[in-house]
Write a structure and sequence with these properties.
- The protein has a domain of 157 residues.
- With 262 residues, the protein is mainly alpha-helical.
- α6 crosses α7.
Length: 262
Amino acid sequence: MHTKKILVLAALCLAAAGQACAVQAAGTMQLKDGTTVPLDGNVPLNQLAPQQNIQVHVAPQAWQLRQAAFAQAVTALARAPADAQAKQQVEQVLREQAATPGAFTPMESLDMLGAYYLPRDGVEKIMPLIVKQAFLGWVDALQWGSPSAQEEIVVDQKLFSRAFRTRDGKKMIDAWMAIVRNDPPRATTIVDLGLRLGMADNLVQGQLTYDRRWPTAFGLERTSAANGGPPVLPALAAQMGYVQAQRLASARIKAFYLPVEQ
């Protein structure tokens, strides 16, 4: 594999920037009198010191640990193409994903598409796979994610544009928009193919083996629990039927990837 061409996932390589506000130890908060107390959710807001960066630890899910390890390896390889260990790690993940694509969450798959396959094969060839993963991801979010989790997945995690958050992402977006503008039937065919691929994976029993409840990794509920609020109970059943989720996800996908210019 031409792993030297793998691009850095900009969204996953954020360095810690300096903060203008105070930063204290994780799990604590500062009061107006300068004292530090545990972060337990029982302190009135009017007693908190202003402009403080309260760090709340939320335990990551297993897929997030895999995602972070892949991002770290991609970043290391982009910085040092001769890094044999990083190259081995990236190639191993890509081999596993190629052999068992249904074992990885849509978020992980979108990262791999953006980091390796999109720059290697181009937007027209890879776009159906991006649409497929975005569709599966939004179906999962509708079925298992709270409203705040859905917002975080779209706004912060950039589900629909995640694969384009690379060094050449703008060039890839421009290439796709050129197809949308200059050949709308072709663009529609590509998006429809991606949707059919996603629907087919959902219909084949055992095709998708990743935890469909991955959207529970996001949302204010988990932060609230870490802050001493009510615990997040395990999701036992989808909050929306698949037929409805599929219909809503298809409409959202088409509106995003096939925008109508005013």
